[in-house]
Input
Amino acid sequence: MAAAARVKDCTVSAAATMATKWLPLAIVLTQATYDHDPEELEALARDIRARLVKLPDESVAPEVLQAMLLTAVAEAERLRRR
Output
């Protein structure tokens, strides 16, 4: 099954504004970025019913990232159907 995604990039400081505008199913960030303000990022994801995809670093293999994204998107879609 083929999947397509639209990727948007923004700064951490603009994340809340952009997330409420774009309503992504998944928000991809590094663990280091997440660790700066995990409570705020979890709240943001919860508010827009998205999933956080936390990468250990930026060198994640494409097939690993793809699997992580597919799982996150499926979970977010289930949340939004409730």
Q: What stands out?
A: The first strand starts at residue 26 and ends at 30. Strands lie at 26-30, 51-55.
